[in-house]
């Protein structure tokens, strides 16, 4: 068996096109959704993500604002900037790129963002709302995974899902979203006993541990759907590097029913869902109907 490849790049392109149509209609009514992205420091990967976020925001017709702060910036200065963005009516979404330098209390910064503008869904109020099944801003990567799973399967009801990884950004919100779609959900992690056996019983495996190739092909139940959230840069020899996921793709593709590649799987959906959340936040701010299909 060779798995169906779930093409996140193409899915994200379609989603951006649809968002661009919605933005065009809003702009005709005098409303331009605005997204502010804050980057602290010079982490090269973060700089690329922020650049791509700005470009894609402009491409769908939204207003894009970027704030680049020195790695040594004082936490108070960052909080002041967030306060200004909270008060700016032309900004509907605020995102602080992670990770932040060690001297900054990330939770304090994320919780300073107006929950209505928290397009990352990391504010504790949005975390609580998602966990209790209320209307929330939902973290972009898990939202993208859910969209791809629903697109492939239709209903996820009754499926056995295993999320490997318990981060606040992916693992925990992913588990909440799958629960919301009536899956039976297990959150596994590096200390899980018999991890192989736990993964083997899953109809849906979401791997988000940040360890290259950790989930082996023979851990996968034949026909299962595998969503690989890992983005690991590894040595490819001759001074080059390449991106690999948390799943051993070559092994898993022979067993799974469907699988996301790395690159070109979940990654592109992260930024597309950021744009989706910004559009949703803008509509909510203006008391307009929610755009369909962009929230769980
Ligand atoms: N505030 C946030 N910080 C971070 C988030 C986040 O959602 N919010 N997620 C990640 C990084 N990230 C977005 O910020 C992100 C990661 C990967 C991709 C992506 O498109 N990946 C491509 C490959 C890109 C490459 O060649 O390097 C792919 O998988 O095909 C987009 C966004 C951590 N920080």
What do you see in this structure?
Strand 2, helix 2 (44-59) and strand 3 form a beta-alpha-beta unit. Helix 6 (140-153) packs parallel to helix 7. This protein is 40% helix and 17% strand. The protein is globular, with a radius of gyration of 19 Å. It has two domains: 30-115, 3-Layer(aba) Sandwich (Rossmann fold); 140-267, Rossmann fold (3-Layer(aba) Sandwich), CATH 3.40.50.720. With 296 residues, the chain is α/β, with parallel strands linked by helices. It has helices spanning 8-28, 44-59, 75-87, 106-110, 124-131, 140-153, 171-180, 195-200, 249-252, 266-285, and strands spanning 4-5, 34-40, 63-69, 93-96, 160-164, 184-188, 204-207, 225-228, 232-237, 240-244, 258-259. The mean pLDDT is 98. The strands form three sheets. A six-stranded parallel sheet has the order 1-11-8-7-5-6. Strands 3-2-4 form a three-stranded parallel sheet, with helices on both faces. It has ten helices and eleven strands. The structure holds the ligand Nc1nc2c(c(=O)[nH]1)N[C@@H](CN(C=O)c1ccc(C(=O)N[C@@H](CCC(=O)O)C(=O)O)cc1)CN2. Residues 49, 95-98, 120, 140-141, 231, 243, 262-264, 267-268, 270-271 line the site of the ligand Nc1nc2c(c(=O)[nH]1)N[C@@H](CN(C=O)c1ccc(C(=O)N[C@@H](CCC(=O)O)C(=O)O)cc1)CN2.
């Amino acid at each position: 068996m060779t798995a169906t490849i779930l093409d996140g790049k193409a899915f994200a392109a379609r989603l951006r096109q649809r968002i661009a149509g919605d933005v065009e209609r809003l702009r005709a009514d005098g409303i331009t959704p605005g997204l502010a992205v804050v980057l602290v420091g010079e982490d090269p990967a973060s700089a690329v993500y922020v650049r791509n976020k700005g470009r894609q925001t402009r491409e769908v017709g939204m207003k894009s604002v970027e704030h680049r702060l020195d790695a040594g910036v004082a936490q108070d200065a960052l909080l002041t900037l967030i306060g200004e963005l909270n008060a700016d009516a032309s900004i509907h979404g605020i995102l602080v790129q992670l990770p932040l330098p060690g001297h900054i209390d990330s939770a304090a910064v994320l919780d300073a963002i107006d929950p209505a503008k928290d397009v990352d869904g990391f504010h504790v109020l949005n975390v609580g709302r998602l966990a209790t099944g209320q209307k929330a801003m939902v973290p972009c990567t898990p939202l993208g995974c859910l969209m791809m799973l629903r697109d492939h399967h239709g209903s996820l009801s009754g499926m056995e899902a295993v999320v490997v990884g318990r981060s606040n950004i992916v693992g925990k919100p992913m588990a909440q979203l799958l629960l919301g779609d009536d899956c039976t959900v297990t959150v596994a992690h590096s200390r899980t006993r018999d991890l192989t056996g736990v993964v083997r019983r899953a109809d849906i495996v979401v791997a988000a541990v940040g360890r290259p190739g950790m989930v082996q092909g023979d851990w996968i139940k034949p026909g299962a759907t595998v969503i690989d959230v890992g983005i690991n840069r590894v040595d490819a020899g001759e001074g080059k590097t390449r991106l690999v996921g948390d799943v051993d793709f070559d092994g898993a593709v022979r067993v799974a029913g469907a699988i996301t590649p790395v690159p070109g799987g979940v990654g592109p959906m992260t930024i597309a869902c950021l744009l989706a959340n910004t559009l949703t936040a803008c509509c909510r701010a203006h008391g307009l109907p929610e755009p369909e299909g962009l929230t769980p």
